[in-house]
Design a protein that fits this description.
Elements: E1 5-10, H1 21-33, E2 35-40, H2 43-52, E3 58-61, E4 67-70, H3 73-97, E5 102-106, E6 113-117, E7 120-124, E8 130-134, E9 139-144, H4 146-154, E10 158-162, E11 164-166, E12 172-174, H5 177-187, E13 192-197, E14 203-204, E15 207-208, E16 211-213, H6 214-220, H7 228-240, E17 245-250, H8 256-261, E18 267-270
Parallel strand pairs: 1-2, 1-13, 2-10, 5-10, 13-17, 16-18
Antiparallel strand pairs: 3-4, 6-9, 7-8, 11-12, 14-15, 17-18
The chain binds adenosine-5'-diphosphate and magnesium ion.
Length: 272
Amino acid sequence: MREMVIVVKIGGSILKKGMDPKILRDLKDAFIQKRVLLVHGGGDQVTEIAEKLGKSQKFVVSPGGIRSRYTDWETVVIFTMVMVGKINKVIVTALHKAGIKALGLSGVDASVIRAERKKKLIIINERGRKMMIDGGYTGKIKEVNSDLLNLLLDKGYMPVIAPIAIGDEGELLNVDGDRAAAYIAGSIKADKIIFLTDVPGVFLDGKPISKISILEAKEIMPKIGFGMEKKVLASLEAVSMGVKESIITSGIIEEPLKLAIEHKTGTVIYSG
Ligand SMILES: Nc1ncnc2c1ncn2[C@@H]1O[C@H](COP(=O)(O)OP(=O)(O)O)[C@@H](O)[C@H]1O
Ligand SMILES: [Mg+2]
């Protein structure tokens, strides 16, 4: 019983109105049979609340085409307040109501996610030139406390993790939810990682892709737009860490997890 391990990333894109009952029903079914760990996003809600607090949010793009929030100290504090204080608790309470033993954690608690603070960031400025800026409070993940996560999974809990990491000097660091999910999946040797988002999968030249290898995924990366580019990159990372497959799929349909696991929906990225 409960041998299969799956990591599910729930995108902020589908969390705006809280947890969708369709996902809850499916998570409950999965939870009865499998070991399930959730990682959530919520970047849009962070932006919305930060702006209400009078802190305007800036985004930067790396030379590799990855878009990220420019995170100064005030921003990482607001990020933590919204991700942990609001979004994580809304999810955990909904899971409890659905009868799932959920335990909310941030990557800071028990050092679940350790990261190295990026001292400098190379970005592409408005004129298309490379530029070096201060790294702020963003981190590159380097270690996951898989002992604690496995202990919780062994005891029948569903860990629900907010994408914040702790740095070497004990600082709060903003880490991307998709990549945090990938690193966690790799560290706990998950069988699958499933990204639930607001589109049916990865589209290439307007057409949905049903299955691609990591080699093919690497090739198409430059053609993938913001939002999805991180899921493709995170899938590559998870699969290279030994996760058997990554599935990027819609979280707004009936039985999103069941259909994804049966390869009836979504884009599957596998090693090969
Ligand atoms: N090639 C692509 N295929 C599918 N979606 C894409 C592609 N390029 C960009 N996207 C965008 O990526 C979005 C999903 O990423 P994001 O908005 O970050 O969602 P989440 O909150 O689930 O992480 C989609 O809504 C879509 O607009
Ligand atoms: Mg996203």
